[in-house]
Amino acid sequence: MKNLFYLLMIISLVSCCKEKIGTKNDRKEDSVIVDPNNINISILIDLSDRIDPSTNPNPTMQYFQRDTEYIKAIEKGFLNHIKSKKIITYDDQMQVFFNPEPSDPKMNEFTKELKVSFNRDTPRNYFDTVDKKYSELPLNIYQSAIHDGNYVGSDIWEFFKNKVKDYCIKNDRRNILFILTDGYMYHQNTQFAEENKTSYLTSKLIKANNLTTSDFKNVIEKNKYGFVKANDNLSNLEVIVLGINPEKGNPFEEAVIKEYWENWFKEMKIKNYQIKSADLPSNLEPIILKAIAGK
Q: Which PROSITE patterns does the UniProt record give (predicted)?
């Protein structure tokens, strides 16, 4: 009887161990392993009238020219990252987006050309191909938009609401989104408010909300001003905003714009973000390269 008892105990222990091992393996198979050495870079370009050299001229360097140099610096950081890896570990990509798409059908071809990816079978000369594309095509995009002259705005809010997860986030990679914009957010098809929060931000709204004094942070907090939350959890996305360019007349305008964006990112659980002004590319390039390198 005693031997039977011990036999049953052994069978029970073996069964429990199998269940635990099985459960552990199941969890391991279901979990997603993120490799920070594999990066997925997206560039969202605001093709609103901020890039128009007639409407927003800058004698030092036009804003569309700054953008093209920012993009070139992003591409440089991307290629530097890949070159630092062993070929067998290549699994990286980069792409460009607009929202909405410009009317010029050539834009679709440009974005196809600018979607590049590297894997272990990528030939070495592909580096030169990518470098050539990113040296020429971004300028073609801006010239086409300026020539078209139909600036309908950039629907950044809608992009974050409906597209950012599908377009810019891959679960097994480090995801970085660069946004090239002046910081104002406006599109004719996405204008709404929920209490004191809005899907847009304009200089006119900043004035209407009395955000023109050094006390603007307290005013924002008290009245709960800001962007309407567009997504719930974007914790696996890093965002770098380049090109903040406030209108003249309000010395606190730039700080207000950055406060709106920062609060919006925090609400969407974006932990790693930077918001930079429309500085000269030579000043921003080290920041761009450092962000891509994860330093």
A: PROKAR_LIPOPROTEIN (PS51257)
Is cis: bond before 100, omega within 30 of 0? yes
Q: Where are the domains of the chain?
A: 1-31, 35-293
Query: What are 2-51's pLDDT values in tens digits?
Result: 444 444 444 444 444 443 334 333 333 334 566 778 999 999 999 999 99
Give the residue-averaged pLDDT of 169-198: 95
Contacts of 184 (CB under 8 A, 6+ apart): 48, 50, 201, 202, 203, 257
Contact in structure between 294 and 78 (CB atoms under 8 Å): no
Phi, psi of 92, rounded to the nearest 5 degrees: -135, 155
CATH architecture of 35-293: 3-Layer(aba) Sandwich (3.40)
Chain segment 101-128, per-residue pLDDT in tens: 877 888 889 999 999 999 999 999 999 9
